[in-house]
Every structure is written in structure tokens, then in C-alpha cells.
């Protein structure tokens, strides 16, 4: 007699349960997917003690009649497919017919279902895979499945369950992904009576992400959409200021099913390249739609992985779509997600007080009574003040690069001064005015920048000094500078970063700047890293790289294995502009390098490039673009100014202008933010000027 025998049905179900029912989250997954396939619009998941004590799923789907309720617990009984051809066009979440018998084999299960609220429903009790009682029960349309005492008959599996918090985390994670996949379904998840997730089911993915990740995160999400001939995708991805420590926040949703796709996740991360710090990951929910024949979901026991046709085309398209979305949607980082409140306009009546020096009711000072001349001078002073107040200030005009102001008001002021003040006071005033004009002469030939105009005194204060090429021979004889104001205005529309005017530095590391939008903090090292990174990338991409001969050639020596590998890849180094050749034995000599290598770090850059070549695999030629990028990042870091380096005002201004001309002025090549913006409202809120 042979030793091979058929297993009985109960034992086969328990073995299958080992693959399908890995933990309580697996039970929730299978039962909720069945509810989704039944066209439910409301699904409630109630869990107790991490799912080991009780899992109850309630939906308002199609429901089942008595016959289907009994047949559903037979192995490989399903309504999803009928022939082999259906396996290649799967549109439902479940199709194998293994979930219900596998769950029932390791638990005490109770099922109530009805196809109509006006008809009597069916109630089943199953314990350890053995069918118990079947009875009629009043029930609304839909299905309710209650799983109790999970793994009660498999103590080994129960022994290795994690903590309740861990199991609840797995359940919550998968329900979150199902909610992202089906925003038109209202989900309710509770644990021990506490609500963990509740979605509205209004069909808006952004509302689901707000319910899962919070409203503040939802405000920092960017919509993404795109399509090719075979694929169509849409969803949301987070800005660079919202990051997480692992990839678990990347949700790939294919034809209404959550799948783990490492290739698509890598494509998304390539889209974020140089925009995120090392070890940080974005929050992404990407819904991909395609013909079912282009994807195979029957490659994993839990259907959590899938294989795509034309996968390279899909990944490349998604990568470009992520890059384009981030390019259009990114902005300067703001430390607080605050929005200015609507201002309430309230009319405040300011009481007016009479501040005249002398009043009819006030007795005259003995000093004034004794000095008629002093009384006369004070009366004239009062008249002059009234004349000055009636002068209408006129804004300065710009002609030929110089500032011109109308002299009509000045004549009134000067005449008022001459009439009122004694001769010695007039002479002193004119002398002070002359000194002031002489001190301003070097600046009269240049058109002031917007910052100078913003910080300049008001027109009434300007009216003390007249600046005009007609009255000032020095200004008239000097060639005017080009109209910087117009050029700046043109650049404002081209660059995603506004014009920022430097004010100072903090610890020689951060530049403080301002404009009409508020205050900015700029990391000077990160800013110049971005500038140099794009410069070196352009240089490395040139077909012909010009090199300069080294005064003293540099030799490097490696092990025999490294020398053998390097000798085969000298052409790769030469494509970087290095003139390198074997120098006998295990030694190589470098005779020339590109002239734009960071000054003072040339030898270090050369050795780093050689190390890059040694670390590449056999397909080194295919990694040229990646190697160029690594080299550009390394060189930009070494060439950039470091912390504790104090800059002059001109250097800071030049650095900010160069940053505005870069293609991605928000992050350095390592993904760290460059600029942080504090709006006027942010500052007022921090100082409690607004509540």
C-alpha cells in the first residue's frame, strides 16, 4: 500500500488558512473585499482586542440567499469567474473562493445575509469549519459576518501573534488603503468602540486622505494625473515638506486593488530625486487604470503583488508625471500652515485733542509776556507749520536712470523757512542740507533698487532734499546705469522664486531676506549647492569637455583587482574630461582635468570619480547619467560656501539672484530645503498681534 493519501476537507481548509489567514488583518482584508465586490456603498468594520476576540463586518451590498450562503463556505466556490479566460480579465478583488472556508476553519463564524430588506434573511453558525445551525432571521439588505475566537483551534499560530497594538496597526493600514482605493464607499473602522477611521463616501480621494492623514497634510498635497495609450493614472502626492520615514505611505492602487509594486514605487521616488532628504519618503496615493489583460494579479497568495505588461513604459511615464507635477506645484517651504483670517472692518472714531501751545483760557507765561519778540517769532512759526502741512507731496519720477522730484513744493518750503527763521537759523539749515547732498552724490547716478525705494523715507521727508540732474552737475555728467528696476520686474515672472532683498546673516550660515510677501531664511550652503549642481550637470553633459593640463600630474595606486577593473573603464573616466592612463603595475596617472573642477578640491574630486567607476557594476556604460549626477552632487557640495562664512551685502544679493535663475530653487541636491518663508501673517501670529 502506498504512503500517499488524500487529506480530508477539514485538514485541507486548515492548511489553506495558513496561507490566506496570516493574521487578523488578513480576515478583515478578505471580508471587506467580498463586501466591495458585492457593490456595497457602506462598510462597517468593528474589531475587539486586535481582532483576536471579534471581527464584525457589516455592509449594504447585494446579499445572498440561503443556497448561496451554504455554498459560499465550500472550497473554490465563487461567483467571480466561470472559466479559464476570466483569469486574464479579473475585475473583482476576490476570485479564488478560498477566503470564507479558510477563515471558518480557524474561528467561530457567524453569517447573516439578505437580498432584500423586505424578505427574511439567512443566519449561519460555523465553528472550526463545521457547519452548525441554519435558520431564518430578520435582516436588512446586505451581509453581516462576525468572526470570533480567531485561531482558537491552532494554538501555535495564536502563540506567535504580536501585540494588540501591532495587530490593530495592520488592520488600520489595510482599511486605509481600501478607503483610498474606493473613495465612493463610506468606511467606518472601530476598535473596542473607538473610531479609528470614518470616510464620507463622497467619491473624493482628497477627502479620504484628509480623514487618514489629517487636514494639515491634505492641504499640502498636489493633484497628479496623466495617461498614455495603455494606462491612465490620477491621485495626490505630497509636497517636499511632508515626508515620512518609510515607504509604507506610497499607495499604488491598480484597477481598484491595492498592490505592492516596487517598480512603480521606485519610479515615484525617482520623480522626487534631489527633492527629499536621504531616508525620507513622500505620501502618495496613485490610482492606475488599465485594461485587465495588461496586469496579472494572480501571482501572490494574498493578491498583494501584480505583474504589468509594458512595465518600463508605465514606470517611465509615471516618473515624468511626478517630476512635472512637482515642478509646477512646489514652492518655498513655510514653517506654519496658517492662513490669514478675514479682516473685520470696524470704524473707530478717534477723539481729537487741541494741542495748541497757547489757549484762551490758559494764562500767558511770564516769559512770553516779558518778550514781545519771542511772541512774534512763535506766531510766525505757527503760520509756517500750517503752510508746510498744506504742501502736497509729489512722488519722484525716474528719467534716464536718475531720480527727479518736482521743485514746486521745495520752493514753498524754502521760502517758508526764510520768512520764519532768523538769518543764522537759515544759514545753519542750508549748510546741513548741503552736507546731506554731498553725502548722497555717489548714489545719485544709480537708479535705486526696489529695496532702496521701499526703505526710503516718505515723499514728505524727501521734500527736504532735491535730487535732480538739472541742479546737480555731478549727477548730470555721470552716465546713468541701466534700468535695473525693469530687468528685475521681468525676471520676477520667469522665476518661481520672488525677488528677495538681503537684510543680514544669522551665525554666518543663514541669509535673512525680505520683500512685500514677508521674511525669508535662506541656507547659503544649500543655495549655492543647487547653483553649482545645475552648473556641473550642464558641464558634464557637454559632448566635448575642455581640460587643463596639471602642473604636477597626480598618480593613484589601487589593488590588483581594482586596477584590472579600472583599466577596462578608463574610457568612462575620460568621458568626464579626465586625461588618465596606466602608469605601470597598479598605478595610474592623471595628467589633466576639466578647468571647472572646484578650486582646491581637484585631487579629491578626481579620486571620488575613480571610486564611482570602481563601484559600478558590469553595465557601467548604462550608468553614465547616474554617475554624472553623483559627480555633480559631490562637486557642488565641495565647491559651495560652508557655514560660518560671513558674506557681504553684494555677495548675498548675487547669491539670491543666481538662485532665482535655477530650475529647481526649492531644495539642494540632497533634498534639504533652501528657503523658508515667513509671511507677514505668520510673523504677526507668532508675536500675538493677531489672534
Q: Tell me the CATH superfamily of the domain at 9-194.
A: Histidine kinase-like ATPase, C-terminal domain
Radius of gyration from CA coordinates:
38 Å
Percent of residues in β-strands: 15-25%
Distance between the first and last residues' Cα? 88 Å
Which CATH class of the domain at 9-194 is shown?
Answer: Alpha Beta
Approximate helicity band: 25-40%
Low-pLDDT runs of 5+ residues are 342-351, 353-360, 390-493
Structural class: alpha+beta
CATH architecture of the domain at 9-194: 2-Layer Sandwich
The CATH topology of the domain at 9-194 is: Heat Shock Protein 90
Average of the residue pLDDT scores: 76
The helix tally amounts to: 25
> What's the total count of β strands?
24
Cα shape: globular
The largest β sheet comes out as: 8 strands, mixed
Give the strand order of the largest sheet, numbering strands 1, 2, ... along the chain: 5-4-3-6-2-1-7-8
Amino acid at each position: 500500500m502506498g504512503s500517499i493519501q488524500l487529506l480530508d476537507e477539514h485538514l485541507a481548509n486548515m492548511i489553506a488558512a495558513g496561507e490566506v489567514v496570516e493574521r487578523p488583518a488578513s480576515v478583515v482584508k478578505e471580508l471587506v473585499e467580498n463586501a466591495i465586490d458585492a457593490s456595497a456603498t457602506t462598510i462597517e468594520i468593528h474589531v475587539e482586542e486586535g481582532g483576536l476576540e471579534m471581527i464584525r463586518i457589516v455592509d449594504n451590498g447585494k446579499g445572498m440567499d440561503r443556497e448561496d450562503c451554504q455554498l459560499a463556505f465550500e472550497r473554490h466556490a465563487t461567483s467571480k469567474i466561470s472559466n479559464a479566460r476570466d483569469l486574464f480579465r479579473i475585475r473583482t478583488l476576490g476570485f479564488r473562493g478560498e477566503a470564507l472556508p479558510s477563515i471558518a476553519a480557524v474561528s467561530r463564524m457567524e453569517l447573516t445575509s439578505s437580498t432584500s430588506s423586505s424578505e427574511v434573511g439567512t443566519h449561519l453558525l460555523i465553528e472550526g469549519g463545521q457547519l452548525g445551525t441554519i435558520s431564518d432571521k430578520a435582516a436588512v439588505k446586505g451581509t453581516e459576518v462576525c468572526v470570533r475566537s480567531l485561531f482558537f483551534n491552532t494554538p501555535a499560530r495564536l502563540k506567535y501573534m504580536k501585540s494588540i497594538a501591532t495587530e490593530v496597526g495592520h488592520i488600520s493600514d489595510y482599511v486605509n488603503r481600501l478607503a483610498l482605493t474606493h473613495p465612493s464607499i463610506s468606511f467606518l473602522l472601530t476598535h473596542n468602540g473607538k473610531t479609528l477611521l470614518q470616510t464620507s463616501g463622497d467619491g473624493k480621494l482628497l477627502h479620504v486622505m484628509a480623514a487618514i492623514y489629517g487636514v494639515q497634510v491634505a492641504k499640502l498635497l498636489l493633484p497628479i494625473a496623466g495617461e498614455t495609450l495603455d494606462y491612465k493614472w490620477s491621485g495626490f502626492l505630497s509636497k517636499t515638506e511632508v515626508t515620512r520615514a518609510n515607504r509604507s505611505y506610497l499607495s499604488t492602487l491598480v484597477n481598484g486593488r491595492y498592490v505592492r509594486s516596487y517598480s512603480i514605487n521606485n519610479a515615484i521616488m525617482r520623480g522626487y530625486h534631489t527633492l527629499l532628504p536621504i531616508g525620507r519618503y513622500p505620501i502618495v496615493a496613485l490610482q492606475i487604470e488599465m485594461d485587465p489583460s495588461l496586469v496579472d494579479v494572480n501571482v501572490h497568495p494574498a493578491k498583494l503583488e501584480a505583474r504589468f505588461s509594458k512595465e518600463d513604459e508605465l514606470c517611465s511615464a509615471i516618473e515624468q508625471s511626478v517630476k512635472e507635477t512637482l515642478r509646477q506645484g512646489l514652492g518655498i517651504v513655510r514653517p506654519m500652515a496658517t492662513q490669514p483670517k478675514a479682516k473685520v472692518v470696524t470704524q473707530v472714531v478717534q477723539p481729537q485733542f487741541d494741542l495748541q501751545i497757547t489757549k484762551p483760557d490758559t494764562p500767558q507765561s511770564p516769559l512770553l509776556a516779558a518778550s514781545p519778540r519771542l511772541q512774534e517769532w512763535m506766531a510766525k512759526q505757527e503760520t509756517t507749520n500750517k503752510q508746510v502741512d498744506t504742501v502736497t507731496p509729489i512722488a519722484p519720477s525716474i528719467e534716464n536712470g536718475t531720480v527727479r522730484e518736482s521743485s514746486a513744493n521745495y520752493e514753498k518750503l524754502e521760502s517758508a523757512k526764510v520768512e520764519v527763521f532768523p538769518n543764522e537759523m537759515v544759514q545753519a539749515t542750508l549748510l546741513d542740507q548741503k552736507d546731506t547732498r554731498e553725502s548722497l552724490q555717489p548714489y545719485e547716478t544709480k537708479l535705486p533698487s526696489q529695496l532702496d525705494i521701499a526703505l526710503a523715507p516718505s515723499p514728505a521727508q524727501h521734500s527736504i532734499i532735491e535730487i535732480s540732474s538739472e541742479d546737480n552737475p555731478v549727477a548730470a555728467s555721470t552716465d546713468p546705469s541701466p534700468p535695473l528696476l525693469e530687468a528685475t520686474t521681468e525676471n520676477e515672472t520667469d522665476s518661481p522664486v520672488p525677488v528677495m532683498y538681503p537684510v543680514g546673516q544669522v551665525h554666518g550660515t543663514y541669509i535673512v531676506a525680505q520683500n512685500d510677501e514677508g521674511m525669508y531664511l535662506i541656507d547659503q550652503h544649500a543655495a549655492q549647492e543647487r547653483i553649482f549642481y545645475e552648473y556641473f550637470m550642464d558641464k558634464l553633459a557637454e559632448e566635448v569637455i575642455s581640460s587643463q593640463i596639471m602642473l604636477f600630474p597626480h598618480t593613484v595606486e589601487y589593488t590588483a583587482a581594482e586596477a584590472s577593473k579600472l583599466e577596462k573603464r578608463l574610457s568612462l573616466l575620460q568621458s568626464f574630461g579626465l586625461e588618465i592612463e596606466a602608469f605601470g603595475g597598479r598605478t595610474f596617472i592623471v595628467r589633466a582635468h576639466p578647468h571647472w573642477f572646484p578650486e582646491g578640491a581637484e585631487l579629491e574630486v578626481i579620486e571620488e570619480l575613480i571610486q564611482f567607476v570602481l563601484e559600478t557594476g558590469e553595465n557601467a556604460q548604462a550608468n553614465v547619467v547616474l554617475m554624472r549626477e553623483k559627480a555633480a552632487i559631490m562637486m557642488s557640495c565641495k565647491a559651495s560656501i560652508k557655514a560660518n562664512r560671513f558674506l557681504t551685502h553684494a555677495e548675498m544679493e548675487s547669491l539670491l539672484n543666481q538662485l532665482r535663475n535655477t530650475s529647481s530653487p526649492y531644495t539642494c541636491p540632497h533634498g534639504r530645503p533652501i528657503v523658508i518663508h515667513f509671511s507677514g501673517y505668520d510673523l504677526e501670529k507668532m508675536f500675538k498681534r493677531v489672534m
